[in-house]
Write a structure and sequence with these properties.
The complex is a heterodimer.
Chain A (H helix, E strand, L loop, with lengths): L1 H23 L21 H30 L26 H6 L2 H28 L5 H29 L22 H34 L6
Helix pairs in contact in A: 2-5, 2-6, 4-5, 4-6
Chain B lengths: L1 H6 L1 H21 L11 E6 L6 E6 L11 E8 L5 E2 L10 E4 L9 E9 L4 E3 L3 E4 L10 E7 L9 E8 L3 H4 L6 E9 L7 E6 L3 E7 L3 E10 L12 E4 L5 H28 L1 H8 L13 H6 L2 H8 L20 H12 L7 H11 L3 H13 L34 E3 L6 E3 L2 H6 L1 H9 L8 E6 L5 E5 L14 H22 L5 H6 L13
Antiparallel strand pairs in B: 1-2, 2-5, 3-4, 3-6, 6-7, 6-8, 9-10, 10-13, 11-12, 11-14, 14-15, 16-17, 18-19
The chains are: A mainly alpha, B alpha+beta.
């Protein structure tokens, strides 16, 4: 009897004191899925998820910026280079209800921030896949550009998963993977004129660059709010 | 008791957890507590790039002979359904590899291995992992070193050590950020590792390494992970001793260059010495006669000279004998008169000797002559060239001069092969022209000759005669005389320069070779 109590106390003490060890080191962890089990599978913490998502967004933005400038140098003659607000072709995500002014963004709730990011990510997955295929048809697209575009589209898919997981974690909402993946945002029709199609691709890249920056900003704002709610800009 | 257990907490924590987990799984599997070989055990999982990962397990070892066993790995991602391992092959035996499509960094994976034998199934304990946490990067390769300062300094050498990451695709675009750690030690000190951490670049410069042999190794890890890669292959780095020869070489080079430069400058100075001398000491211009080439006179081709001069009225080509110019100054006269005055009236051998002796252009006398000539241009006497048929060449002892004159003598010039019979008679005619010309002013008037020297030391000076064209009487027009004198000057200077050894030709040229005709016997 005494021995039983003693072992129970011991286990409790060990459990209490060694809980950080269990978390930080990849030791065998209990993860039971049987119903009725007391223990749950541990999952990745919210902070880690957010950090990884931000890491993704930063990299995606940086690589998309490099790809856009590479494309511009290679294929776009000087007078046609887009300035920030020019629009030969409108950005495809113009129709999305995503705020773009600073004041609007500051007023967005965490939930809307996350949902906006998810909308953006999901709406860009298909166009990037398309862009990957068109770049293969270019005569002398540099390999670096092709690789970068491929990498970005892969990471965008990963980012989508991460944002979904984050939403699940932060907002306790269910999975909704294809809510915003609607048709109509992007058409596949091939334009006969070479210059026209080049210009469209260029527009795609530069719009994506802008949206990637938006995603990164939203996520960083979210992170900032986690730390200090009232001091973020 | 509890306090004791708390104190023992750090060293035994891991062991205790394992024991606890074992206790848990025992209850589920109805197995007796024992070693880990009685059932499979996932012992290691690793992801090299956060995009795929592999797990390895220990298989069931407690087998009876002939028993077949298969292992199955099942996993689940957080709350999803169980799935089987997609790839048992890539990672080797008893491994499971998850490629990028099966890998997600957003969820925790929980894996179990089940050993299926004919009798029963043995299930390993569950192993859960977070892919981003098990990132263990590849080992750095190509560890090399370069000594950066060849000469070395007081502190020793600097070495630049560099390496490369074998799979650059992992770190492109910043997907994984690597942190390196480098360790080095002397070969002779096996445990004294010096650490360089953290390093962001795949290179590092070690400064001030003393001369010795070193062992270097490096490893890396992903920034967000805790797992270090394996240590790279060790590099043996030997620091050579200081190359003092390098400095010596520099010194030699510098001195060599300096010496060469000096030589060049010296040679250039030597070659240009004349110009330099002319620049610093400009030459005094020589007197020239218009129409006559001084080089011609210098060369001394008498035929040409005679030809040139023949159009002068009273020019007579000189005989081919060397003239003995005997410059005598008053000092000389003073010196020698006491000696010769006693012998004045005794034309003896001694007189002859004395007569002859001054003809000898001893170098000392020449030099003194020239000196004194420069000092007293008005008071020198010269020997009469033999063709003048003047018996005596020496006027040094003026008192003795008159006496030997009437006497015909055989005079031999000491330095030539000529000997002549001197006729005194002709000599007597000389004074007359002298006297006649003494009154007429001539360009030679500024030159006076000693006519006679008294016993008391008085010197009678008379204007010197024009150059010794002694075959003819010199009732010559003065102009002719002048030109003749000039020409004679030139000629005699030419002769004189020929005669005189060595330099001082300029002085002799400046000096006017005149024939002193002080032949008075009146003493």
């Amino acid at each position: 009897m005494l021995i039983f109590v003693f072992t129970f106390i011991q286990r409790g003490v060990w459990g209490l004191l060694l809980w950080p060890y269990i978390l930080t080191v990849s030791m065998p962890l209990d993860c039971k899925e049987e119903p009725g089990s007391l223990t749950r599978c541990p999952s990745i913490s919210q902070e880690k998820l957010l950090d990884r998502v931000i890491h993704h967004a930063e990299l995606i933005y940086r690589v998309s910026e490099e790809s856009c400038s590479l494309f511009e140098e290679m294929f776009i003659p000087l007078p046609l280079r887009l300035q920030s607000n020019q629009a030969g072709f409108a950005c495809i995500t113009k129709t999305l209800p995503i705020p773009s002014s600073k004041s609007e963004i500051e007023q967005m709730s965490d939930k809307w921030l996350l949902h906006s990011v998810l909308m953006l990510v999901q709406s860009w997955i298909e166009p990037l896949v398309y862009l990957q295929t068109t770049l293969d048809h270019y005569d002398h697209a540099p390999e670096m550009l092709v690789n970068k575009t491929k990498w970005v589209s892969e990471k965008l898919v990963s980012l989508e998963q991460g944002v979904v997981a984050l939403i699940k974690k932060m907002l306790d909402e269910g999975t909704f993977t294809t809510t915003y993946n609607e048709q109509g945002l992007f058409q596949y029709d091939t334009l006969p004129d070479m210059l026209e199609s080049v210009m469209r691709d260029y527009t795609l890249l530069s719009c994506f660059k802008k949206d990637a920056h938006k995603m990164e900003t939203f996520l960083k704002l979210l992170k900032c709010r986690q730390a200090d709610k009232y001091n973020c800009a | 008791m509890l306090w004791l257990l708390l104190c023992l907490l750090p060293p035994v924590s891991y062991g205790r957890i394992v024991a606890q987990n074992n206790a848990h799984t025992e209850r589920h599997n109805h197995e007796a507590t024992g070693g880990t070989t009685t059932r499979p055990h996932i012992y290691f999982c690793r992801s090299p790039n956060m995009e795929d990962f592999t797990c390895w397990w220990h298989p069931l070892s407690n087998l009876t002979d002939g028993e077949e066993v298969t292992h199955i790995l099942t996993y689940s991602k957080e709350k999803e359904a169980k799935l089987e391992c997609p790839d048992y092959v890539t990672g080797g035996p008893n491994s499971c590899h998850f490629d990028s499509s099966h890998t997600s960094i957003w969820m925790v994976y929980c894996l179990t291995v089940t050993a299926i034998t004919t009798h029963r199934n043995y299930t390993s304990k569950q192993h859960c992992l977070d892919v981003a946490e098990i990132v263990q990067t590849e080992t750095p390769v190509n560890l090399t070193y370069n000594l950066t300062d060849v000469g070395g300094d007081e502190m020793g050498h600097n070495a630049l050590i560099s390496w490369t990451y074998p799979v650059p695709a992992h770190v492109q675009y910043g997907w994984i950020t690597l942190v390196y750690e480098l360790q080095y030690r002397r070969i002779t000190e096996p445990d004294n590792w010096k650490v360089k951490y953290p390093l962001r670049e795949p290179q590092v410069e070690l400064l001030g390494l003393p001369v010795d042999d070193y062992v270097v190794r490096v490893r890396c890890r992903a920034q967000h992970s805790k797992l270090w890669s394996d240590w790279s292959a060790t590099l043996v780095m030997s620091i050579p001793p200081r190359q003092s020869a390098g400095k010596l070489l520099v010194l030699i080079l510098v001195t060599g260059v300096g010496v060469v430069a000096l030589l060049v400058i010296t040679f250039s100075i030597v070659l240009q010495s004349k110009r330099i001398k002319e620049y610093f000491l400009p030459p005094i211009p020589k007197p020239r006669i218009i129409g006559i080439d001084p080089l011609l006179l210098k060369k001394g081709n008498l035929d040409e000279i005679n030809r040139h001069f023949s159009n002068f009225h009273s020019y007579r080509p000189p005989s081919y004998s060397e003239e003995v110019w005997d410059h005598v100054s008053t000092d000389d006269i003073y010196l020698t008169t006491p000696k010769h005055s006693s012998d004045a009236h005794n034309p003896s051998e001694s007189e002859r000797d004395t007569l002859i002796v001054p003809c000898n252009p001893a170098p000392l006398e020449v030099s003194t002559r020239h000196q004194l000539t420069a000092l007293n241009p008005n008071s020198y006497m010269q020997n009469v060239p033999p063709y003048c048929s003047l018996p005596n060449k020496a006027f040094t002892p003026p008192l003795s001069i008159p006496s030997p004159w009437p006497m015909p003598e055989i005079v031999s010039l000491p330095r030539t092969d000529y000997s002549m019979m001197e006729h005194p008679s002709l000599s007597n005619t000389i004074p007359t022209p002298d006297l006649t010309f003494s009154t007429s002013p001539s360009p030679q008037d500024f030159y006076t000759c000693v006519q006679l020297l008294n016993e008391s030391g008085e010197v009678h000076l008379v204007p010197c005669l024009p150059p010794p064209y002694c075959r003819e009487f010199p009732p010559l027009p003065r102009a002719n005389l002048d030109t003749a004198e000039k020409e004679e000057k030139k000629k005699t200077t030419n002769h004189q320069t020929r005669k005189n050894d060595g330099g001082n030709s300029e002085k002799s040229e400046a000096a006017v070779p005149l024939l002193p005709v002080a032949v008075d016997n009146s003493g």
